[in-house]
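User: I would dearly like some help making sense of a protein record. I have put the entry right below:
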Amino acid sequence: MNAERPALLGVVGLLVAATAGVAFGVRLGLPVSAQTLFVATLWGTTILFAGTAVVWFVLTYVVGAGYEPPEAVHGGDDVQVRILTIDAADVVQQTVDSLPAELDDVHVVAEADIDVAGATVHAVPDDFACEAVRKGRAIEWARRHIDCDREYALYLDEDSIVEQFDGLPDADVVQLREQPRHTGSVWSYLADVYRMGVQIEQRAFARLSVPLFAWGGGIAVRTSLEDDVTWDRETLVEDTAFVWAAARQFDIDFELGRVTCRNEAPPTLYEILQQRRRWAAGNLQATSLLPLRYRVLTRVRNYAWALSPIVTLVAVPLSVLGVGVVYGGAFTLASLGLAAFTAYWYLRGITYYGAPEFHWALAVPLAPVVTLVHSMGTVAGILSPPAEFRVTKKVGGR
């Protein structure tokens, strides 16, 4: 049951109505009961997001303290590359052309027969049936039908540019780093920059019994583990679901690699909304694979991220302006502290990209809007989960 849905609807509805009510209530008088409920909701939201921020801090700077990706053990001759697409030949060709020469066993798994130079192309037959759907179905077909005598299958999305390959550590699952590139909407790009700041928590995942998520832009899986776990399950987030299923069955080694994929940031606000919507809905659906403590943590984190813009777009302005009953020292300090966290995540994302993107630090005053762009799909995924997998539109080009 999606318990988050009615709770999120109630909180958002109350805050939208009560914010307008408080603004008028300064002059017209708002009923005490309405004021009390409004304040309680704001405090509850702030405390929930604060708890999530504290968990993030502990994961990143306590659990993940001092983590460095292990040295590479496996070179390109131990890796088979499998690139997933529907039929985006031009985008896939760019990805294939970017691959270093040592990655010489390259396969494209598509829904239709396409021409791609430098790779073996496989079209998934229409009559292939399994529990998995869409992208997961293609991966499962590849597992069953593409001959592989190498240690790892490296799965790349169609737009994942890999210009340098430094090898893989000896782990069951190796998550490649991510660095989305600007392709269209500035807001979508900045939301992904913000996400990179939050995502540095991944360095703690190797020290957890279950990684909190995985992403498919670039993930290497030991082929023996792949055959034991399989991809044959219906899910919207096949990569995270695979890792969670593997962790449930085995004591797996999960490491963050040194290789970076430069995939496309969603080109429009609509595309980033649908992408985040699928991620949020898929993660919630897949939590049944998790132990109870991880299930609770994941669901609470998703819910908190959906509510996160309330802190910076509602709580901070009201506390600073001293509007109505939310004015107060403790609330002001709490909301401003969380706004500082938001700014930090954005700036941390900028530093992750490095000097070429430092000019985007000037946009830090826009961080509240960036968080809204980042989280609006999470709200949509909780309130209206998509019925099936939807591929994020790609535009191609560097």
Q: What stands out?
A: The chain has two domains: 4-66+293-383, 76-183+202-266. The mean pLDDT is 87. The two ends are 42 Å apart (CA to CA).
